[in-house]
Amino acid sequence: MTLLEKLSGKIGILCLAGASLLLSVPGTLAQERAVPKNQAAMKQSFSPVVKQAAPAVVNVYVRHRVKQSVSPFFRDPFFRRFFGDKFGVPRERIQNSLGSGVLVRGEGVVVTNYHVIRGGEKSEVTVALSDGREFPAEIILKDEKTDLAVLRLDGEGAKFPSIKFANSDTLEVGDLVLAIGDPFGVGQTVTSGIVSGLARTKVGFSDYQFFIQTDAAINPGNSGGALVDMDGRLVGINTAIFSKSGGSHGIGFAIPSNMVRLVVQSALKGGKLQRPWFGASLQPLNADLAESIGLDRPSGAMVTSVHKNGPARGAGLQVGDVVVSIDDKTVKDPEALQYRFVTKGVGGKAKLGVYRNRKLMNATISLIAPIEDPPRDIRELEGRHPFAGSKVANLSPAVAHEIGMDDDAKQGVVVLDVTRGSNAGRLGLRRGDIVVGINKEKVSSVEQLSLLLQLDTGGWRLSVERGGKVFNLAIQG
């Protein structure tokens, strides 16, 4: 365990995902809902829904070519001294993975989970339809932050079955849903259940926390499969379960269709997902804080800092404001706010409901992409110092969004990558760590960091921020 890991601790989360896609519902009125009134109604079948939706649910097979060292001891300098470098030359091996996916366009556009196709640029992806046909697929967008990926089938002009998006905002707890996928590789399987929760934000499986919870059985292999409503439209991407055994215990989570739609649209417009920039740091409210500012319940996202050039400042937001809604949709915490804000897409404006000085007011915020100020100035650090083997950049809102940082108002130098076995790797540096200071000098830019690392000080006193906490390390020269 590295020094930073001992200081910061480790949190392990088991994520067993199965993706499902949400369908768009025309109009704004919710469907009428009715509880079955008699035994005859209870005997009705989901078969018509399955016949409509199931052909658009596919299997996704991925072959990854990965390099693996012959011996785990190869990185040990003592071992290499006696056995030389040739003993540890990496060898290539094939790693296979299986998941599900959903056809959302007749020309062969498939949505699945990012973690289904994760594994590098040398992946070979094959998609198998329910009718037995198989097609090679090209990855046109993969986004780890949303845990979504978009594929395009090489069908030489063939037309494919597809499913439409529903408006996930029309879902209500208690609505019937079906989960379609290929659990454990046994073949396409349909399970039924209800929506047992909405806007789940404390799950921890992706950067945008706003999941649909269902009790429809979801198991390994369902990742990327469809969660559909009773009209056969996609309402979510089944992506994760809570489980102690590896199987379903009736608590599954799906990515809402409104987020999925945004990712698909971005893929078809050029393969890059642009997210609007809020430009402020946020924190949740507890009961005591809500009471102190005059709110009757701990709901909303409190502004703790505002970027000087960000949209939040342009909208007039101030530290201490509490954002309680976006376009009249309630937000309960910062994760819900981020989801509502991001799914607006770049372009246009959004209306915020803001609580300030015990009064509710409105503000209008622009939906713009994050700026790159200062320029990132990416450098790979080398030399006889603790940061050797790390890649760093100046932290800007654009860089913060790219690496998944929650706080896009921070400034300084951020770690982008760390080479295994390097000084930085042994120190325990990780992607997303912020270099705060070196030998009591505050670090504000990559250029300044490089100059400080060239000084012969005989030892190092480092300050590194991770997860909002600053760790101070002392290293002998």
Structure description:
The protein is α+β, with helices and mostly antiparallel strands and 477 residues long. The protein is built from twelve helices and 25 strands. Strands 19, 20, 21, 22, 23, 24 and 25 form a seven-stranded antiparallel beta sheet that branches. A six-stranded antiparallel barrel has the order 1-2-3-6-5-4. Strand 10 and strand 11 form a beta hairpin.
Count the E strands.
25
CATH topology term of one domain: Thrombin, subunit H
Q: Which class do the helix and strand fractions yield?
A: alpha+beta
Helix amount, in percent? Answer: 10-25%
Mean pLDDT across every amino acid position: 81
Total helices: the number is: 12
Q: Quick one: CATH superfamily of one domain?
A: Trypsin-like serine proteases
Uncertain residue ranges:
9-30
CATH architecture of one domain: Beta Barrel
Tell me the Rg in angstroms. Answer: 25 Å
Instruction: Categorize the overall geometry.
Output: globular
CATH structural class of one domain: Mainly Beta
First-to-last CA distance: 21 Å
The amount of beta strand, in percent, is 25-35%
Query: How would a crystallographer describe the biggest sheet?
Result: 7 strands, antiparallel
